[in-house]
Design brief:
single chain, 498 residues, 7-stranded antiparallel sheet, 6-stranded parallel sheet, 18% strand, globular, transferase, glycosyltransferase
C-alpha cells in the first residue's frame, strides 16, 4: 500500500497537533529528546456499547512510519512561525535537528483483524522520547478511525448472518480520507465489496454497484430504463424497483428478466431502497419465485445498520444482500473510538526503565505502567481470557491470577499450563527498520472471521453483551497499585497544612 504517496505526494510529518511540536521543542531544549521512552496506544471502552473491537489501521501506521521525516517545506513553514513576542517559535538548531531526524523507534502491535479489548495495548512505541511524542497524534488518528469502522462492519455482518453486505457510503463519508479509510476498514470487518472505485484500486477491494433512481427517471418509462440497462449489462443486471411503484417495478424487472433469459442470460436480482423493506421483500420473493426466478437476489438498502438488519431478520424479511452506507462509514451513533496514547516507562541514566503511571479520580483513566504485553489463552480453539503482563516478569504456569484493571474485586484464576496461548503484540519495527511482512487485505479480512469465531456468541451480542475476561497479571496489578499509592502519598505531602 502506498496511500501517502498516492494521496499526498510527500511528507505527513506535520499531520499532528501543535502541542506535539511544542513538547518536542521543549524536550530538545531540556536535553531529553533522545531519552528512551515507551508509550502505549489503547482504548478504555468498546464502541457501540458492544462486547468487542476489531483492530485495524496497522498498514497505514507502517506506511506513515516508513515515510516519517520533515522535508524542506515543513521546516520552512515551522521557521516562519512567530510567537506573541514576534520572534520565531522554534530555534534554528531545533529545526536543523528535525530536518535530520529519521524514524528509529521499535514498534510492536496487534495484527490487523485481531479482536481486542479495553486497556490492552494495540500499539507499543519504544524509542527516543521526541519521536514517540511526535507519533502520538497520527497513530491515534489512524488506529481510532479504522478500528471503529472495522468494528461497525463486523457488527453489521454478524447481524446479516453470513449474507453479503455491500458498503456504499462514500458520498456520506467524512471527506476523501475518511471515505478511503472507511472502505478499507469496512472490507476488513467483513463487507464483501465497496462502491468506492479508488478504494478498489488502492487496496484491491472488490467493487460493486448497479444504477440509481436518476437512471430510471432519465427514460420515458421504467420498463425502457430496465431494458436499456439489461442491454448494457446483460450478465450483471440488478434492477432498482422502487422509483415509482415497487410492485410495478418488480413486474417490470421480471419482464426484462424473461427477455434476458431468452438470450441465454440471467437477471441477478432487484434492489429495494425505500418503504417497508420486510413487506416488499416478501412480496418480491413471492413474485420472483412464481415467475421462475428463485435464484434472483433481493438487495435492500435505506439507512441500514446492525439493529435494523437484526429487526428485519426477526421479521423474516426475504432479503439476501444488504447495502449499507451512511451508518457504516460514519460509525453512526459513536463518532470516535476514544483511543489514547500514554507514557508507560522511561529509561534513566543507569540504563533501566522506570515505570510511569498517571493517576486520576476515575479508575479507568489510570494508565497501566511498565513495558507490558498481552497473552490470549484458548481452550479447544475458544478464547478463555486475555492477560496483560509485564514482559520482564515470569507468569505462574499453573495458577496465574488476572485482576480487572477497573474493578480489583473482579478476578479470574487461570492455569496457563493447560491452555494454548497467543502473544498479541508482534514485532513491527526495530530501530526504525521494518521487521513485519504485512498480510494481504484478504488475509486480514479472514483473520477477523477466525478471531470472531473463537469467541462465544454472548460476547458478540448486539445488546448487553457478556463481558470477556481481561485482566492484569498479579505482578502488574501490584506494581500499578503501588505506584498509584506512592503518587497519592506524594500529592498529599505536597498539600499545604490547613
Amino acid at each position: 500500500m502506498k496511500i501517502t504517496k498516492d494521496l499526498y505526494q510527500g511528507s505527513l510529518a506535520l499531520l499532528t497537533d501543535f502541542y506535539q511540536l511544542t513538547m518536542a521543542y521543549a524536550y530538545w531544549k531540556s536535553g531529553k529528546a533522545e531519552q528512551e521512552a515507551v508509550f502505549n496506544l489503547f482504548f478504555r471502552k468498546h464502541p457501540f456499547q458492544g462486547g468487542f473491537t476489531v483492530a485495524a489501521g496497522l498498514d497505514y501506521v507502517i506506511d506513515y512510519c516508513k515515510n516519517f521525516k520533515f522535508n524542506k517545506e515543513d521546516i520552512d513553514y515551522l521557521a516562519a512561525m512567530k510567537g506573541k513576542d514576534g520572534q520565531p517559535v522554534f530555534a534554528k538548531g531545533f529545526l536543523d535537528y528535525l530536518s535530520e531526524m529519521r524514524f528509529s523507534c521499535d514498534i510492536d502491535a496487534v495484527e490487523e483483524g485481531t479482536v481486542v479489548f479495553p486497556n490492552t495495548p494495540l500499539v507499543r512505541v519504544k524509542g527516543p522520547l521526541i519521536q514517540c511524542q511526535l507519533l502520538e497524534t497520527p497513530l491515534l488518528n489512524i488506529i481510532n478511525f479504522q478500528s471503529l469502522i472495522a468494528t461497525k462492519a463486523a457488527r453489521i455482518n454478524l447481524a446479516a448472518l453470513g449474507e453479503p453486505v455491500l458498503e456504499f457510503g462514500l458520498r456520506r463519508a467524512q471527506g476523501i480520507d475518511g471515505g478511503l479509510a472507511a472502505s478499507r476498514a469496512a472490507y476488513i470487518g467483513g463487507c464483501s465489496s465497496t462502491s468506492n472505485v479508488m478504494a478498489g484500486k488502492l487496496f484491491g477491494i472488490p467493487v460493486s454497484g448497479t444504477h440509481a433512481h436518476s437512471w430510471i427517471m432519465s427514460f420515458e418509462t421504467e420498463l425502457e430504463a430496465f431494458e436499456a440497462y439489461a442491454e448494457a449489462f446483460p450478465d450483471q443486471s440488478v434492477f432498482l424497483v422502487d422509483t415509482y411503484d415497487t410492485v410495478n417495478g418488480i413486474k417490470n424487472a421480471i419482464k426484462v428478466g424473461k427477455a434476458l433469459r431468452s438470450k441465454g442470460k440471467e437477471m441477478l436480482g432487484i434492489r429495494i431502497d425505500s418503504g417497508d423493506l420486510a413487506y416488499f421483500s416478501n412480496v418480491a420473493r413471492e413474485m420472483l419465485d412464481e415467475a421462475g426466478f428463485p435464484d434472483a437476489k433481493i438487495v435492500a438498502s435505506n439507512d441500514l445498520d446492525e439493529h435494523i438488519i437484526s429487526s428485519l431478520k426477526g421479521q423474516e424479511a426475504s432479503i439476501n444482500v444488504w447495502g449499507v452506507g451512511t451508518k457504516l462509514v460514519t460509525a453512526f451513533d459513536q463518532p470516535a473510538l476514544g483511543g489514547v496514547y500514554k507514557l508507560s516507562a522511561i529509561r534513566i541514566e543507569d540504563g533501566t526503565f522506570v515505570p510511569k503511571v498517571k493517576i486520576s479520580q476515575q479508575s479507568m483513566k489510570i494508565n497501566i505502567p511498565g513495558i507490558h504485553n498481552v497473552k490470549r489463552y484458548y481452550s479447544k480453539g475458544k478464547a478463555v481470557a486475555d492477560m496483560i503482563y509485564l514482559e520482564d516478569q515470569e507468569i505462574n504456569p499453573k495458577a496465574a491470577l488476572i485482576i480487572d484493571p477497573n474493578d480489583p474485586t473482579r478476578r479470574k484464576r487461570l492455569m496457563p499450563y493447560f491452555y494454548q496461548e497467543e502473544t498479541l503484540l508482534k514485532e513491527i519495527f526495530r530501530r526504525g527498520e521494518l521487521q513485519y511482512a504485512p498480510p494481504s487485505i484478504e488475509a486480514i479480512r479472514e483473520r477477523v472471521q477466525v478471531q470472531l469465531g473463537a469467541f462465544d456468541k454472548a460476547h458478540k451480542r448486539l445488546v448487553n453483551p457478556h463481558i470477556y475476561p481481561v485482566g492484569l497479571e498479579e505482578n502488574l496489578h501490584n506494581l500499578r497499585m503501588n505506584l498509584v499509592l506512592q503518587a497519592k502519598q506524594t500529592e498529599d505531602e505536597d498539600q499545604p497544612e490547613k
